[in-house]
Please model this.
Amino acid sequence: MSHEAYQECIDECLACIKACNHCFDACLKETDVQMMAECIRLDLECADICAYAVDAMSRNSPFASHICRLCAEICEACGDECKKHDHTHCQQCAEICFRCAEVCRKMAH
Amino acid sequence: MSHEAYQECIDECLACIKACNHCFDACLKETDVQMMAECIRLDLECADICAYAVDAMSRNSPFASHICRLCAEICEACGDECKKHDHTHCQQCAEICFRCAEVCRKMAH
Amino acid sequence: MSHEAYQECIDECLACIKACNHCFDACLKETDVQMMAECIRLDLECADICAYAVDAMSRNSPFASHICRLCAEICEACGDECKKHDHTHCQQCAEICFRCAEVCRKMAH
Amino acid sequence: MSHEAYQECIDECLACIKACNHCFDACLKETDVQMMAECIRLDLECADICAYAVDAMSRNSPFASHICRLCAEICEACGDECKKHDHTHCQQCAEICFRCAEVCRKMAH
Model:
């Protein structure tokens, strides 16, 4: 694994934490919160696994690759949910989630 | 700090993590999610600080006492919000939050 | 998945967090810290994934089963390292890790 | 609180997570691990509180200011320990910790 790929993945995960937490906060303030319930749930899942992946990669965990595989999967699911909603915070979050999923997948094999 | 007080506080925090996460999940499934938005937010805050407090106490962190003070405050706020709602998961969560707040406060000085 | 199996796995993970964090703290206080370096590292990994698994299960995460599979693997690795060392904290931690791994594995399919 | 100050603090905390986790990993690989025990412990504490502060700020937590106060204090302590050691990873970590502490302190009142 090149050191650059490593740094890139950490930075994508950090961007994803920020986007998901912002989307979580913004969804809870929407008028139709119910429609956003699944988005709220996945934003949280995604922010959590990204934080865990950042710790694993930056600590050189022997499990970093497995954790990145799971992270890719959860980012993908979060992106799929977010892109269903027209809110700017959802669309931006979806874009960042898909980018993060792609980079995590490269780390995963 | 007696070892017993320590263990008691860890166990209250662990119970509080379970209660808050369960309440979070149940709130997101309620028909009126909007009314539960603040509860969802505080359930998450409270589960997070309790997990952090458990780590700090069980690792003998030099900051355990400061972290417990913050934990008591957040548990109190979460309990105050939860007790406004009639759902069983909210009422049970409120009760556990208040108990956890009380035990954390004893650790905090 | 029966509700009981679920609760059992959450409780094993909570016990594992306590054991791993205690072992982490105790290892850092041993006279030969260098010999404990891998144990310190894995205690932390294991406490982290267990905390993440507890959150996932108690929030009814759609990824709970995948997370438990990863948790089983990391608990197993931590147990394997801990059991190499004669310190009581390591032996106890190994035992709890193996038990947690076993219960997590049942959740994972 | 200006939005810029907010973003700056999130970014300093993210940089601090990376630096502390890298220092943690590097300390565990040093030949004299025992001398690094306190540094290992504080690196972990500091990475944990920074991750928690990032979540709190990016979710607009009502407790963000209190969490930043605690974060400033722990960053300061971690920086104080790191700067005692000549290793490059420790010196760099100290520098980032002090900068993060300063920015967190501004958020805290």
About this structure: Chain B has one domain: 3-107. Chain B touches chain A at residues 28-29, 31-34, 36-37, 40-41, 44 (CB under 8 Å). The mean pLDDT of chain B is 93.
